[in-house]
Fold each of these.
Amino acid sequence: MIGIFDSGLGGLTAVKELRRLMPGEPLIYFGDTGRVPYGSRSAATIVKYASQDAAFLLSQGVDAILIACGTVSTTALKELEKNLPVPVIGVVEPAAEAAVKATKNGRIAVIGTSATIRTGAFEAAIRARMPEAEVISRPCPLFVPLVEAGFTAPDCEITRLTCEHYLAPIRESGADTLILGCTHYPLLAPILSEILPGVTLISSGAEAAKAMAALRGQHSEGVAPVRYYVSDDPTLFVASGGTFLGCDISGGVEKIDIERY
Ligand code: DGL
């Protein structure tokens, strides 16, 4: 059983891809909706939250963990790898690998939370594979609150204006590939693609899911259940998550007290 966690809805981008690649694998998802957003917090707080999230998943018997959160992957991966008794996969290396494969002009843009961009982790992972790459990084701190509030419709004026504001320098840079370094951002993909036509969007959550599927190798047959847990009232998570996943998850979401872990 694979455990996946994020600060909220974003990690569902990894769940969706894992369902496609390995439907027979039981999954357990934790979205820390009571403490979202992570991306505006200090590294020490992010490490603490991530350790509790992983401890909860371990208590459920998972034998691998996918950190479906750019903020945790860039800030706390080493700490978790050191302390956890199961394999851990983050989003940075898989997304950088996909971006380097996708770019034709060597100009790669990265967007993420303030905490993520501060670490420079995506940039380092890109340069390790393509030293001559031109990397443009931008924090987009308003995206996570917009997604968590359900402002994801392609015709939402507030979200569109916010996207235009953040993406203007990326459009000017001529980048042909954009890493969505925060797993929430693919929920805004229809608007992002309209503002950046012709730019390849890399979903960091989906790329991490592919890396996890490759790590697991053989996949079992059939369709296994997915259990969802959150740390606050599940109503918004059920509505937005169900829309994104394209299925009704209202019967399968439970609230837990994450501070116990
Ligand atoms: N999905 C998380 C990420 O990938 C969002 C972090 C946040 O809660 O700010 O960074």
Note: The chain has a mean pLDDT of 96.
Amino acid sequence: MNNPLMNSVSANDSNAANRDNDSVTIVEVGPRDGLQNEKQSISVETKVSLIEQLADAGLSVIESGSFVSPKWVPQMAASDEVFRQINRRKSVRYTALTPNMRGLESAIACGVEEVAIFGAASEAFSQKNINCSVDESIERFKPMMALAKEHGISVRGYVSCIFACPYDGIVSAAQVSSITQKLFDLGCYEVSLGDTTGVGTAPETKTLLRQLGAQFDISKLALHFHDTFGQAVANTYAGLEEGYRVFDASIAGLGGCPYAKGATGNVATEDVVYLMRGAGMKTGIDLEKLAQAGSFISKSLGRPSQSHVGSVLASRAQSE
Ligand code: HMG
Ligand code: MG
């Protein structure tokens, strides 16, 4: 079993080294977390084109779909077709969400090489999102981990509701730590910490991340901020300052979670890349090409981009 719970000396050493790392990894979740929440239908062609443009812009990890029940999230129903049609590049990891064995088997059938299982820090969110308790979800994930290992598939874990749950209210750091540990114990190579409802602020982010940093190797933790209360860029910077180097983001700020009413999209990828550029961090991403991808999907959906940076760059490009 992989156990990342380190004694405080080695955790401190490893986390200090992570702080010196001047590269960040941005995990693009727009084609999944973003588009899963859309009411209008989006063609496979549009999804595939978006994913190709994101790869052209230099994204190295793109969450491209979700093998969940179409009764629960209809927008992700054609994810198998999306995976079959994308022109997979060696430099890009195309990942998918899988809630159960059925989803994992479907992902394997269309050649997905990395998946994510998703749990929650709160009981009520777990019930509403995947129709089981937190403990039941861990039991559900066990055979999935075994099957994934058999097929050489890496598995990421998600923890939803790190600050608050739309049904249970405030979530404690102990709850976040407990589910994070369970996901690492299962064998997840990385755990993404989700502020699903987008309620956290930078000081709260720092406090939580410091607590988790005393317990875990932060090079194995990713941050997943939603922007409901407009705090996601500030929270991203708080995470960067705390030494975290993996950030989930969504092109044009698309999205939300269908089981967290009122939650808006993730922090916009364009805004995160701009922030990282200002902070002197390497992302490997071409901001202009990224903004074009943001304009493409915003036009396809018929509404303005939620990215500040994307909107500015698009209007400049128009006036040139
Ligand atoms: P259930 O109703 O308990 O499952 O749902 P079930 O086994 O009784 O199946 C119900 C029906 O779905 C059956 O069909 C199954 O065959 C089918 P029927 O017999 O009625 O015709 N089914 C499936 N079909 C396709 N693929 C599958 C699959 N599984 C069952 N994999 C289940 C349990 C987990 C399936 C359901 O709750 C579900 O799909 N939940 C997913 C919800 C979701 O996708 N939420 C959004 C993603 S999480 C998120 O956004 C948060 C995150 O971004 C981090 C953050 O922001 O915090 C990750
Ligand atoms: Mg999310």
Note: The first helix runs from residue 8 to 20.
